[in-house]
Amino acid sequence: MTLFFDRLQHTFFDQFREQGDLHFSPVLAARLDNPVMVSSNSLLAEELGIDPTELARPEMLQLMSGNFLTANIKPIALVYSGHQFGVWAGQLGDGRAMTIGELSTGDSQSLWDIQLKGAGPTPYSRFADGRAVLRSSIREYLCSEAMHGLGIATTRALCLLNSETQVYREEIESGAIVCRVAQSHIRFGSFEHFHYRNQPEAVKALADYVIERNFPAWVDADNKYYLMFENCVLKTAKMIAQWQSVGFNHGVMNTDNMSIIGDTIDYGPFGFLDRYDPDHVCNHSDTNGRYSFKNQPSVGLWNLNALATSLTSLIDNEDLISALKQYEPAFLTHFRNIMANKIGLEEYQPDDEPLINQLLELLQTNNVDYSIFFRTLSVFSDNRQSIRDQFIDRDGFDAWAQKYSERLNQQTITDQQRQHNMNQLNPKYVLRNYMAQAAIDAAKQGDYSEVELMLTVLQSPFKEHPEAEKYAGLPPDWADQLSVSCSS
Ligand code: AMP
Ligand code: MG
Q1: Roughly how many angstroms between the first and final C-alpha of the chain, as a whole number?
Q2: How does pLDDT run across 371-421, given as a tens digit for each residue?
Q3: How much distance in Å is there from the Cα of 136 to the middle of ligand 2?
Q4: pLDDT (tens digit, 9 = 90+) per residue, 209-262?
Q5: Among candidates 279, 283, 274, which has minimal Cα distance to 246?
Q6: Cα–Cα distance, 418 to 381 (Å, whole number)
Q7: 252 CB under 6 A from ligand 1?
Q8: 132 C-alpha to ligand 1 centroid (Å)
């Protein structure tokens, strides 16, 4: 049986290699001791044209854990810089991720980078060990697939390994690897890196690479750099509108954690809202709340401004500004449409704004669970009481419900159809912190079944999963106390 490793190619990175390794460093993997496959993602394997049974083979375990002795693999780590918490941080780079090749799924536009995250130090590790622990790897593995299940652009995760390699954090933990898969791992900070080093030719080479690789239709366009940037503005606006709509808080929206193709990337101390709290800060280290839930849309624009600055050698200022100006309307259009659809409206109308805003205010002041509220709202016509019970301020809810009811009556679709539509948009399952913690606690005891269960459930979060009903309800009281930091 040929393994998918034999299909890996280096076409695009070879172009960079010709420019003298400016954009990356060749690296060697430091393999894990006694690796075990915690979980592999059959759904993604199939999308990539990989036979899912292949991932269960012992050779695959060896390869995925960084033992490339028998394979012709030449891993690389990418360099980038970035603004962290609004401050220029200088050079960062793949400190613990290495790209092992590109996998083509047929046509030229479907080229995927295969990365191992946690496979040992690189020249960009600074003083860290290049490792990822099981805890943070489970979170990244499950959340990437959860986001994909929610229809949000994201990097993916093909498999997750644990090992007996000891990694030192606040305590000794086991080293893990996530195999991350994406159509681009180029970040805003990749462009910033060369801009601030006064290397405009390297900025151009990087942009050419992104265009050729991800937007081949624009290769010959006169304004190809503008199109790449404008696309990034629009994709980022859409992605963040979707984050807001499902209650996702990224946690570390530094420019090195923003993807040029508008994927959600770098899952660290992220969180999904339990009760609706716009001021929620999921990252324990974010003491000023820069990356709070409600700040995400404006941080998106701040980051795009930083990217625009790094593209000034390629794109006229006026054009950069005109692309940036599209961000807010694009964000608002997506957000309003999604929110209107979430409450069962077929089409957003300007008068719906107060209806949506009043609802969000009520959810906030009543500490209502965000995901459960929207999921249950579909039964409004049959069982309004079950929704009303979620509010302390019943009068407030009744006043809103009256207006909502009138608005629903303007529509012609049947209740049943509306219910059906709403259930396709309001997930029954999101990766709440306490769920990730439950999967981690079990995995630390060698029981990987919760990871597997959550993977299945989160990959189709709009469906009913009777076997996972325990994760559809309110989080336990201790969930509020969980804190997640960058320590990964
Ligand atoms: P993050 O906050 O996870 O985006 O990481 C910021 C930078 O630190 C990135 O360049 C990472 O590659 C690097 N980094 C984080 N953890 C480690 C680690 N354990 N070993 C080496 N580099 C790391
Ligand atoms: Mg990062």
Answers
A1: 36
A2: 999 999 999 999 999 999 999 999 999 999 999 999 999 999 999 999 999
A3: 13
A4: 999 999 999 999 999 999 999 999 999 999 999 999 999 999 999 999 999 999
A5: 274
A6: 10
A7: yes
A8: 9
Residues 6+ apart with CB under 8 A from 197: none
Over 70: is that where the pLDDT of 299 sits?
Answer: yes
276, HSE (Cβ side, Cα atoms, 13 Å): 21
Coil vs helix vs strand at 202: helix
What does the alpha-carbon distance between residue 207 and residue 213 come to, in Å, rounded to a whole number?
10
Q: What is the pLDDT of residues 300-358, one digit of tens each?
A: 999 999 999 999 999 999 999 999 999 999 999 999 999 999 999 999 999 999 999 99
The DSSP string of 119-148 is S---TT-TTS-S-EEHHHHHHHHHHHHHHH
Poorest-pLDDT segment among 97-111, 230-244, 263-277 = 97-111
Split at pLDDT 50, 70, 90, the class of 487 is low
Cβ–Cβ under 8 Å, residues 392 and 312: no
Number of Cβ within a 10 Å radius of residue 235: 17
Q: Which residue, by CA, sits nearest to atom 12 of ligand 1?
A: 95
Query: Would the CB of 268 count as within 6 Å of ligand 1?
Result: yes
Phi, psi of 399 (to 5 degrees): -65, -40
Catalytic, out of 94, 113, 256, 286: 256
Residues 141/211/46/103 CA torsion (nearest 10 deg):
-90
The alpha carbon of 95 and the centre of ligand 2 are apart by a number of angstroms equal to 9
Residues 6+ apart with CB under 8 A from 232: 260, 261, 262, 304, 307
Task: Give percent of the chain above pLDDT 70.
Answer: 98
Give the pLDDT of residue 19. 77
CA atoms within 13 A on the CB side of 460: 8
> Does 113 qualify as catalytic in the annotation?
no
Phi, psi of 165 (to 5 degrees): -65, 130
Q: CA of 48: how far to CAs of 2, 52, 100, 267, 463, in Å?
A: 15, 10, 15, 22, 24
Q: Is the pLDDT of residue 20 over 80?
A: no
Query: For ligand 1, atom 7, which residue shows the shortest CA distance?
Result: 92
| DSSP-H helix ranges across 124-272 | 134-149, 188-195, 200-214, 224-246
